[in-house]
Design brief:
single chain, three-stranded antiparallel sheet, 10 strands, elongated
Length: 135
């Protein structure tokens, strides 16, 4: 005696399987998988700062709230103007726990209003500040 399964029954079974799988994937992560996200406040530059194309300046951030586990402890610093963050970092490979890094403003930077973006565990921005032409 042969049994035949209808296409509708197969599709219903697959739908149920995918539904259960999607529910399982949406379950909360266990404590082992938890990650702390650290967003240190950038303390320098501020809106009162003025930097110059070609100059080297110190970027600083507050490390007092660093969690015990940082997902990505290695930082990168980018320049941001308006809604666009530049594609190349002006500093990278430093420890976020250092709280500071020196950056050099590239000579091809167009003078204007900028922000510093600190990436690592997460991304955060400084106040907007001017970068003037080299003298």
């Amino acid at each position: 005696m042969s049994t035949s399964t209808s296409p509708r029954a197969v599709l219903t079974a697959l739908f149920m399987l995918f539904t259960l799988l999607s529910c399982a994937l949406c379950a909360p992560l266990s404590a082992v998988m938890k990650r702390d996200v650290w967003v240190p406040t950038i303390t320098e530059p501020t809106s009162a700062s003025t930097w110059t194309v070609g100059g080297t300046f110190l970027v600083t951030w507050d490390t007092s709230s660093e969690p015990s586990e940082v997902t990505n402890p290695t930082g990168k610093v980018y320049l941001r103007q308006g809604d666009a963050t530049q594609s190349s970092p002006i500093a990278y490979g430093f420890a976020l726990s250092d709280g500071e890094v020196n950056v050099t403003i590239p000579y091809d930077t167009i003078p204007g209003e900028y922000m510093i973006v600190l990436f690592g565990d997460s991304g955060n921005w400084s106040d907007e500040f001017p970068i003037d032409a080299a003298t």
